[in-house]
Amino acid sequence: MPEGPSIVLLKEAAISFSGKEILSVEGNSKIDMHRFPGKRVESIQSWGKQFLIVCDDFIIRIHFLLFGSYRINERKEQPPRLSLQFENGELNFYACSVKILEGRPEDLFDPEGDVMNDQWNPEKAKSKLEQTPNAEICDALLEQDIFAGVGNIIKNEVLYRVQVHPESLVGKIPPAKLDEIIYEARNYSFQFLEWKRNFELKKHWLCHNQKTCRRCELPFSRKHTGTKNRRSFICVKCQELYV
DNA sequence: TATAATGTTTGAAC
DNA sequence: AGTTCAAACATTAT
Fold this sequence. Notes:
By secondary structure, the chain is an alpha+beta fold. It folds into two domains: 4-108, N-terminal domain of MutM-like DNA repair proteins, CATH 3.20.190.10; 114-234, Orthogonal Bundle (Helicase, Ruva Protein, domain 3). Helices cover 26% and strands 21% of the residues. A hairpin with a 2-residue loop joins strand 2 (43-47) and strand 3 (50-54).
């Protein structure tokens, strides 16, 4: 569920609740949800992996972490973390993090930092990368302050496609190659979106969860990389290591 | 059945 | 006081 494109799909699925009044709430979240009924949803937004239900003076922020899920107009067996009832249906969230953010989304989130956003700004990403030359690129891609919405699948697929080893140091990657990485972070995220929409995401994985590299037939090296220690699938022949 | 996996926050330890 | 890191959380497919 969790990477940026999946949240965009949720946003599309939940758009019918935009402008609607929250009639009632339930759920086992510890937040003060009693203030929700009677409020109107101003807009449904997303930023990176976060799903935002924007009301006039606060935002309900949902983060699905690793295992979170949602149902629209249906329910799972488990009790919902948060359930919102509207006149035209209900929105149910499970096993996720729910927070109330005070303030306006434009004050809290920079649209230029979200790879799924129209306002995504690749130059800004590049200058942020230049600030951390000693970071490994596998960590940098997962950094939500730089590439909001990129998760481990996108990280792996991007680095395989541009043929860069995950343990390459940001400062040692040639600038043109860095531009390619930044471009592909957004480009692959949108491919992810369309493939996920059509339930064919896994079919298009080139390295993630794959056994062998289809360029050279060598088996992938599987390794947990970076300070974030997330698993990587590496073709040591096809992906260049810049150190 | 045990394990690992699309992730982040928190608080203890250093 | 700043950093680092393990623990916590929780679900599902293999």
